[in-house]
Amino acid sequence: MAGKPVLHYFNARGRMESIRWLLAAAGVEFEEKFIESPDDLDKLKNDGSLMFQQVPMVEIDGMKLVQSRAILNYIATKYNLYGKDMKERVLIDMYAEGIADLLEMIMILPLCPADQKDAKLALIKDRSTNRYLPAFEKVLKSHGQDYLVGNKLSRVDIHLTELLYYVEEVDSSLLANFPLLKALKTKISNLPNVKKFLQPGSQRKPPPDPKKIEEVRKMFKF
Amino acid sequence: MAAKPKLWYFCGRGRMESIRWLLAAAGVEFEEEFIETREHYEKLKKDGCLLFGQVPLVEIDGMMLTQTRAILSYLAAKYNLYGKDLKERVRIDMYTDGILDLMLMIALAAFQPPGEKEEKDAAIVKKAQARYFPVFEKILKDHGEDFLVGNKFSWADVQLLEAILMVEELDAPVLSDFPLLKAFKTRISNIPTIKKFLQPGSQRKPPPDSRYVEVVRTVLQF
């Protein structure tokens, strides 16, 4: 009987959070080992555990997986959250890549120099309102179904819901003109596994704390 | 009878080149329409072809696909270059995703100010030699097979060859410490479909020059 997946990352959202969301939504219990010092990271590197010397790394099914996309693809396939055929899969992939692009912008915002922050924030708001949110609202409107692809829950509903929470954290008014996205967010949030993950005390990580980021940057020298 | 896939992009490598490589490796003929003006780009957007307002765009099997990785995954699956099962697929995903990270650095380096480009190129070569090439040298050494995954030609082999050739353009002797990668390069280059793609006159694009950068900047307005 396989053990639980083990996630190796910092005690933060970063590039691991989407993986946490997907595992949680799939009802999969997982363990976490947090990297808290450069020594922790060095140990993983020296063990040969990190293919490209980077985290996220997830131990699952006897493998040490790296590259968040590869990990997400694996989990989605394993837990039947990747559509029923190639055509559904490519739609899921297209949507997921767009979501990942916006997620990335939001994720690295706390790391950008103070003098660039306002411009980056404005860009995030612009991209959300004019590029990404309208695209997904349109998808939902075009088929009138509850889920983005194939009238069935898939990974991309989870990724989008996660993204919508972050967009709201950036600026709660950004979702105002997207009723179908709001409805999707509510529906997915009420799925038992997701509901549980959204409760306090779950493995979901809080928004980045600027002071903590500063400490981590000093410690890891980046 | 299906029409040939059609590619919309600038007349240069950028994010489309990996797609050209994979189609070529699979022996699939494709058409290309080059974007050279802002007007052309705006028309594509207005026609609703671009899900997130971005290229690459590939028309295939009745679908308008965007997002490079979504397109590559679809092609790999369609042309049986994605391994035989989930475990092989996740390895292909890990390898290609890592390589794509490296290749994105190279693609973006073209847009650096002239003074900084040399420095950027040197950093890329260093990263290739320190982080990426050793991994693939070791993989080939450990299993002693001709191809990266499952003893069979896959997307991962195409992606790695493309990356090797691109890094060699920055620094010719970059493979000097990697004998197995040198042999790999020769072997994969001699696969008939790839050999054909490497000939002058194929749809393979040259390294980015200042004209290419100018066109992209003008069309995308940055």
TrEMBL record, chain A:
Residues 3-83 form the GST N-terminal domain. Pfam families: GST_C (PF00043), GST_N (PF02798). The gene is GSTA3. Keywords: Transferase. This is Glutathione S-transferase. It comes from Sciurus vulgaris (Eurasian red squirrel). PROSITE patterns: GST_CTER (PS50405), GST_NTER (PS50404). Belongs to the GST superfamily. Alpha family. GO terms for biological process: glutathione metabolic process; xenobiotic metabolic process.
TrEMBL record, chain B:
Residues 3-83 form the GST N-terminal domain. It is an enzyme of class 2 (transferase). It catalyses: RX + glutathione = an S-substituted glutathione + a halide anion + H(+). Its EC number is 2.5.1.18. Residues 85-208 form the GST C-terminal domain. Signal peptide: none annotated. Pfam families: GST_C, GST_N. One of its GO terms (molecular function) is glutathione transferase activity. Keywords: Transferase. One of its GO terms (biological process) is glutathione metabolic process. It comes from the Eukaryota. One of its GO terms (cellular component) is mitochondrion. Belongs to the GST superfamily. Alpha family. This is Glutathione S-transferase. It comes from Sciurus vulgaris.
